[in-house]
Specification:
MetI-like fold, 512 residues, single chain, 59% helix, 5-stranded mixed β-sheet, D-Maltodextrin-Binding Protein, domain 2
């Protein structure tokens, strides 16, 4: 029965693109074209307003014009930028439009329109950093280390640096443009490479930053659709061509101050034919060939997951034990603050705690003291380990508190009567017994921690879940990549599950 359900689910996933072959008629029937993007990117791309389904920004207005051409209204769907192709593939939206670059790997799995924006990349660094004045400076390592450059995850900026400066540059992946600029300002990064329009839009917010060198990495933004939607693509292309011809596209771009001479090339036939040219050539690898090509990358990401887990969990255990001891046996002045700590940490999301540690805390520290480069360059890992340890310490504290309270009160009294001090009684009598009692739940928390490391991708850590998302989006083989990722997680957590079950059986005998 389970096998039949599994086969049915896989078949539905594989056949779903065929079942949604052409959605143009469905769009006109419902009167709505659903499009996906990430509002977190902000101006000038997508700017949220009172009506969350119809945002502003140049892409919001572009979609309004294209929807009007189709005789329908647009409806916006929020999604993390790195997962937009997943949103499209799953059928939750009809198209995605949010600064998604024209790339050969993407057009092999999806349809796309002609380009609607010509995009250049601009390097931003601190004005007072005399080490970085031109692109030529990036060719030389700094004090035996690489340059640390912030980029948006899986973008043309990241690929440009890896293809041209792999020997001297280490890229740091960020979920948003301004977060990378913040860290350049706060000296956690040496520079950031971003879209020229974003650099111009946010430049006034960062007076300590300046443009370095000329623009590079010319690319094109396009609208992506699922395979089989040729009619919808042709309608969108017709709308884009009309807007280019009658000046409406320039009017929108002028409004957001992103028009430049490069946009004049949008009407050139060679530019409009780029998607068709990219779609041809060598056949794209699919299925298990993708796994063979990306297995090492996935294993490296799994290694980061293991590193985060085995470094943060011991810290959480030690901190949790100290908190539990403080609440039960510490001075009265400590009990209330420790209780507040536990409730605050347990009552707030792990991601919010990581954001505070990674984005807010460095800014506050930088206001008072300059931190060394090695600290700044490794702060993402430090913040990830610290955040996981702090978050899990609150849960471990409650587990240890329960374990300590499960020990009969007479144990402490007997220890004191034998001449042990209170500290010795805790160290040699109560804590060892409590540790034995809580081993199974602590082991279960360790297993849960392996999965929770995925949240660390929000602070530029590329662990297994994030690497899955990148590989799946770039290869168009989500099922195979998901299967291997699940097996890797299972390989990491299953031995601990066996250990937990074995310990659960032994604990009653220990307490007998």
């Amino acid at each position: 029965m389970i096998a039949r359900v599994f086969i049915a689910c896989m078949a539905s996933l594989l056949l779903s693109p065929c079942l949604r072959a052409d959605t143009l008629d469905e769009i006109k029937k419902r009167g709505v074209i659903r499009w996906g993007g990430d509002e977190e990117g902000g101006a000038p791309y997508i700017i949220g307003g009172d009506d969350k389904t119809r945002p502003a920004g140049f892409e919001g207005e572009l979609m309004e014009a294209l929807a009007k051409k189709l005789g329908v209204r647009p409806e916006f769907k929020q999604c993390d930028w790195a997962n937009l192709t997943d949103l499209l593939r799953g059928g939750e939206v009809d198209i995605i439009c949010n600064g998604v670059e024209l790339r050969k790997d993407r057009v092999q799995s999806n349809l796309c329109t002609i380009p609607y924006f010509v995009n250049d990349l601009q390097l931003l660094a601190r004005k007072n950093d005399g080490r970085l004045k031109s692109w030529a400076d990036l060719r030389q390592p700094i004090q035996g280390d690489k340059w640390h450059i912030g980029v948006l995850t899986d973008t043309a900026a990241e690929r440009f640096l890896k293809e041209n400066f792999a020997e001297t540059v280490k890229t740091k992946d960020y979920p948003g443009t301004t977060q990378a600029m913040d860290h350049v300002r706060d000296e956690q990064l040496d520079a950031t490479l971003t879209d020229l329009m974003a650099a111009n839009t946010f430049g006034n917010r960062y007076p300590t930053l300046h443009f370095v060198g000329e623009t590079v990495g010319r690319g094109y933004f396009v609208i992506y659709l699922r395979p089989g939607n040729e009619r919808l693509r042709d309608e969108l292309n017709a709308g884009l061509r009309e807007m280019m011809a009658d000046g409406r596209l320039k009017t929108i771009y002028d409004k957001y101050q992103i028009w430049n001479d490069a946009q004049l090339t949008l009407v050139i036939p060679e530019v409009q034919q780029l998607p068709d040219q990219m779609r041809g050539g060598e056949e794209r690898k699919r299925g298990w060939a993708v796994i063979r090509e990306n297995l090492v990358t996935l294993l490296e990401a799994a290694g980061m997951t293991v590193l985060l887990s085995i470094t943060s969990m011991p810290l959480a255990i030690v901190l949790g034990l100290l908190i539990a001891l403080g609440r039960l046996f510490g001075p009265a002045i400590l009990r209330a603050p420790l209780a507040v700590y536990v409730e605050v940490i347990r009552g707030t999301p792990l991601m919010l705690q990581l954001f505070f540690l990674f984005y807010v805390l460095p800014w506050a520290i930088h206001s008072f003291v300059a931190l060394p480069d090695w600290w700044n360059h490794n702060f993402a890992l430090i913040a990830a380990v610290s955040g996981l340890a702090i978050n899990y310490s609150a849960y471990e504290a409650e587990i240890y508190r329960a374990g300590l309270q499960a020990i009969p009160a007479g144990q402490m009294e007997a220890a004191l009567s034998l001449g042990l001090t209170r500290r010795q009684a805790l160290r040699y009598v109560l804590v060892p017994q409590a540790v034995r009692i809580v081993i199974p739940p602590v082991t279960n928390d360790f297993i849960a921690l392996f999965k929770d490391t995925s949240v660390c991708s929000a602070i530029t850590i590329i662990e297994l879940s994030k690497q899955y998302s990148i590989v799946a989006n770039n290869t168009g083989a989500p099922l195979e990549v998901a299967a291997v990722t699940a097996l890797l997680y299972l390989a990491m957590s299953y031995p601990l599950s066996l250990l937990a079950r074995r310990l659960e059986k032994r604990v009653p005998a220990i307490n007998a």
